[in-house]
Write a structure and sequence with these properties.
With 108 residues, the protein is α+β, with helices and mostly antiparallel strands. 19% of the residues lie in helices and 28% in strands.
Length: 108
Amino acid sequence: MRFTTDFYIIMLKRNVIFKIKDGQNYYDFDEGLMAFMAPGQMISVDSTDVNDATGWLLVFHLDIIHNYHLGKTIKEFGFFSYAVNEALHLSDKEENRVEGVLKNIQHE
């Protein structure tokens, strides 16, 4: 499956057994926990079997942040770039902190 989106995507994943290709390179997603993708990036997934996958997707359009400082600077963040094709490795404390933020967003 191959697609592009108009959205920014932040993924926090567990038990992902399929490969994701971001542009021309495979995302190093096996051991990492958190990954980022920008609008317009070509994303390829080599399987649709996600039965055991768990985690979060935070998906948002630039329009939601364009009037804020983040909207003006988000393109400067290197982790949304094609050049970065590794998922972030988080400590348990960092993972809990990120998951807490995502739960607060879900609650709102």
